[in-house]
């Protein structure tokens, strides 16, 4: 028996659903000319789509100032894909493959995702429509070319940046919190700068990063990008050398897959002193770094212990004994043949009338350090060993006694406030007397808390001195005399050096010792 299939009559004039069309555009920087280009693209695509009677305009998705190498960094592209997968779009128009994605893997992955939901992409420049392609070979080639072009551009940009790092002409585009970027230069933002200085002051007073962040959040102090204050944000500020006025360039680098990594010696770093106006002193900055390291040690946190690398061992650590200014590294050329490195007072450079301290040779300071360390190795039993129990016994006992006394006073203050509350609740005190008495007790409590914080900080400072002294004892206990200057040894044991004259310096060690040494 034959099978007969009945075909329903098609109604003439039935309306066909319009193709829902969206466009995607992107610019890689937030510069004014690029943003103007983005606005022009947006206007062009809206007009272009609306003029086609068979198309229904969905929208234009735009990413501003974002790289095309990784899809995860482009929120509008991800929103476009999500809307397409939800059935809101039939066709996507974009200028070129490189505008859509410079990463071959990402490009093909996104196209396959869109093909799975029957959404095509039309690339204008290459005249490719993924909806009519039988295979991905042509698209794969074109996408690879776009990725290679991106890699070449990135390498050229890196080369340009490194040259600017090297000659000191690099201009900032993203200033740290506390500064504004004016014509590529860092200028102090007074409102934010006061917050930065407060953070450093409270860290020096013994407050932890979490406590500082909590207080800033409770006081609704605005952050740089209107986010939230956290311990990580505070620690990043405390670790940023830019607040000393110096800059360390190339802390991070981007690999061939466009992933960013911390620079741990893979590439050269460039340290620029007095790059801009400082918000904190080098001395306070170094103290904060020591406190951070101590807190991490107390909590048994394993992390990168090496502090940021300065280009020179003495950077920020040579102090003029006459005016107290930091001394700057310079290269002296007394004649065409001879060249040597020296350290010169910044005040002396600007105005010799305010400071008469002349420059000292870098080599002379190095030799003085070697001589001092060898004396400590030789006189370890007479100098260092008796110092350890003395510091442990005298300083610690004295500070603990002061803390015990303060705790007693704070407990008595709290008891007085409880008694005051009870008397007022029973109507045994008039309101003016109660108010005045309570204010006096609260003021006294605040004074005691501040005094306790100072003593706690002194105790932490004392603990750091003990750690430093033990490290010095371990080194000198090996009995090995130095034959040459070792930068890492200097960084490990010396806080700073004061130049008393061209023939004498004084080393301030982390363990609290101050030792003078003659220079040739």
Class per helix and strand makeup: alpha/beta
Cα-based radius of gyration, to the nearest Å:
34 Å
User: What do we call the CATH topology of the domain at 19-151?
Assistant: Rossmann fold
Q: What general form does the structure show?
A: extended
- The percent range for strand residues is 15-25%
Report the count of strand segments.
Answer: 18
* Low-pLDDT segments: 5-14, 134-138, 140-156, 300-310
Biggest sheet overview: 5 strands, mixed
Strand order of the largest sheet: 2-1-3-4-5
Kindly, what is the distance between the CA atoms of the first and last residues, rounded to a whole number of angstroms?
Answer: 119 Å
CATH architecture annotation of the domain at 19-151: 3-Layer(aba) Sandwich
Overview of the structural elements:
It is a single chain. Among the domains are: 19-151, Rossmann fold (3-Layer(aba) Sandwich), CATH 3.40.50; 171-298, Putative Large Serine Recombinase, Chain B, Domain 2 (Hect, E3 ligase catalytic domain fold). The chain is 48% helix and 16% strand. The protein contains 15 helices and 18 strands. The strands form six sheets. Strands 2-1-3-4-5 form a five-stranded mixed sheet, sandwiched between helices. Strands 12-16-17-18 form a four-stranded mixed sheet. A hairpin with a 4-residue loop joins strand 17 (504-509) and strand 18. It starts with 18 loop residues before the first strand and ends with a strand. The relative contact order is 0.06.
Question: Which keywords apply here?
Answer:
18 strands; 16% strand; 520 residues; four-stranded mixed sheet; alpha/beta; extended; Rossmann fold; five-stranded mixed sheet; Hect, E3 ligase catalytic domain fold
């Amino acid at each position: 028996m034959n099978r007969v299939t009945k075909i329903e009559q098609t109604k003439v004039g039935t309306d066909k659903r319009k193709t829902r069309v969206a466009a995607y555009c992107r610019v890689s920087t937030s510069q004014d000319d690029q943003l103007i280009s983005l606005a022009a693209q947006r206007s062009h695509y809206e007009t272009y789509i609306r003029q086609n009677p068979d198309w229904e305009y969905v929208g234009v998705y735009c990413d501003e100032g974002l790289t095309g190498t990784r899809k995860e960094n482009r929120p509008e592209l991800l929103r476009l894909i999500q809307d397409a997968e939800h059935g809101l779009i039939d066709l996507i128009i974009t200028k070129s493959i490189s505008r859509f994605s410079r990463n071959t893997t990402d490009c093909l992955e996104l196209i396959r995702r869109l093909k799975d939901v029957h959404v095509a992409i039309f690339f204008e420049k290459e005249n490719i429509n993924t909806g009519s392609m039988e295979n991905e070979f042509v698209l794969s080639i074109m996408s690879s070319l776009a990725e290679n072009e991106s890699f070449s551009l990135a390498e050229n940009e890196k080369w340009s940046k490194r040259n600017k790092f090297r000659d000191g002409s690099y201009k900032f585009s993203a200033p740290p919190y506390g500064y504004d970027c004016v014509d590529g230069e860092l200028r102090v933002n007074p409102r934010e700068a006061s917050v930065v200085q407060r953070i450093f002051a409270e860290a020096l007073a013994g407050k932890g990063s979490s406590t500082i962040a909590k207080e800033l959040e409770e006081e609704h102090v605005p952050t740089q990008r209107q986010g939230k204050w956290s311990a990580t944000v505070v620690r990043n500020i405390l670790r940023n050398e830019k607040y000393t006025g110096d800059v360390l360039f190339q802390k991070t680098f981007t690999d061939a897959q466009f992933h960013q990594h911390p620079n741990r010696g893979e590439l050269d770093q460039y340290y620029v002193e007095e790059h801009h106006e400082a918000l904190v002193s080098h001395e306070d900055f170094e103290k904060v770094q020591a406190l951070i390291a101590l807190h991490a040690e107390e909590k048994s946190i394993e992390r990168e212990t090496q502090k940021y690398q300065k280009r020179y061992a003495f950077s920020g650590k040579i102090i003029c004994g006459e005016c107290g200014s930091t001394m700057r590294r310079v290269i002296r050329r007394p004649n065409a043949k001879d060249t040597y490195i020296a350290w010169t007072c910044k005040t002396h450079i600007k105005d010799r009338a305010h400071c008469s301290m002349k420059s000292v040779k870098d080599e002379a300071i190095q030799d003085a350090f070697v001589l001092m360390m060898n004396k400590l190795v030789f006189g370890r039993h007479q100098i260092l060993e008796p110092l350890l129990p003395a510091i442990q016994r005298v300083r610690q006992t004295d500070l603990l006694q002061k803390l015990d006394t303060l705790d007693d006073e704070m407990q008595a203050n709290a008891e007085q406030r409880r008694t005051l509350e009870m008397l007022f609740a029973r109507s045994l005190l008039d309101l003016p007397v109660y108010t005045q008495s309570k204010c006096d007790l609260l003021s006294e409590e605040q004074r005691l808390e501040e005094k306790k914080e100072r003593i706690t900080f002194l105790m932490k400072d004392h603990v750091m001195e003990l750690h430093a002294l033990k490290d010095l004892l371990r080194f000198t206990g090996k009995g090995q005399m130095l034959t040459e200057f070792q930068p890492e040894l200097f960084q490990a044991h010396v806080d700073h050096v004061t130049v008393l004259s061209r023939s004498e310096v004084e080393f301030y060690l982390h363990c609290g010792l101050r030792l003078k040494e003659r220079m040739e």
